[in-house]
Amino acid sequence: MIRSVLLATATTLAVTMVAAVHGQTPQKTTNSAVYTAPQADRGKIVFGEKCGACHDPARFTGDAFFEAFDGKALKEVWDIASGTMPEDNPGSLKPQEYGDIIAYFLQLNAFPTGTTELPGEAGAMANIKIEKPMKSGAASPVAGVPAAGAKSVKAGVYTAAQADRGQALYRSKCASCHAPNRFTDDLFYTSFAGKPLWEMFDVISDTMPEDNPGSMKPGEYVDIMAYLLKVNSFPTGEMELPTGKDALSAILMEKPQR
Ligand code: HEC
Ligand code: HEC
Description:
- The protein has helices spanning 2-22, 37-50, 62-69, 74-84, 95-108, 122-126, 160-173, 186-192, 197-207, 218-231, 245-249, and strands spanning 28-29, 128-129, 151-152, 251-252.
- It is mostly helical.
- Helix 2 packs across helix 5 and helix 9 crosses helix 10.
- It binds heme C (HEC) (2 copies).
């Protein structure tokens, strides 16, 4: 009798342990608001200090991120980050700092924020599945809110040739009223940082040049925007900055790091 009770207890224990080792099926997804905005901001700073020397944030944004991790538990990112990174000093950060960096990765991919922080802890990470942002491409863009899955202007969203065309247009159409440094000041970031590039397009194409609003072609306005990105030291890429509302809504304007 005692023996069988003990056995039963042992079996229950064993089952529990097996379940723990193999990891539960994730109960949440990255769309379940699993981190906070201030946490992601902290993570961004730590990333800049500890990871930025080797990694561009673009490495963890959009396709690059989803190709590696879509459908997997957040623990996969956690294991690599906390177990093997920074490559020159693995595991040297506090657990919560790794958690904050992963929150920053979620923010880069425009996942929704919530009111509870992402814990810097393997079990919590195992419980969250990475899935592409729910609204990706489907819902029409909401003014002022980056589309789900937005990529950053840091990801190389315009070409050098396009910025050169934009600079020539800028000289002839805008420079009479604006010095280029008007678009690297805090007023400019207050208006546009953290918002989809569509906002900037909307303002410029609706109201500028002030003496003849809307007089230029959409392609000319985006060329000028490419130039403004260059003035802000954002990297160039392979593809030109597009003109469409959906495409521009999917690119997030940011304040450059100096
Ligand atoms: C000394 C250089 C270096 C530093 C610093 C560094 N990494 Fe890495 N990291 C690498 C290399 C090299 C790879 C493998 C190549 C790759 O996937 O880009 C890698 C890969 C990764 C991967 C796997 C990417 C994938 O798609 O499989 C993650 C996640 C990662 N690093 C996160 C971090 C984090 C977080 C930090 C800061 C705490 C960091 N790394 C700091 C060099 C570095
Ligand atoms: C005739 C003068 C004039 C011309 C030409 C002109 N602007 Fe403006 N622009 C203004 C004024 C005035 C404002 C409002 C005050 C300000 O924000 O500097 C403004 C505001 C802006 C803003 C909003 C800035 C913010 O931080 O909210 C942007 C962006 C802008 N202009 C871009 C352009 C571009 C691009 C061109 C060329 C296609 C252009 N402007 C041509 C006079 C002009």
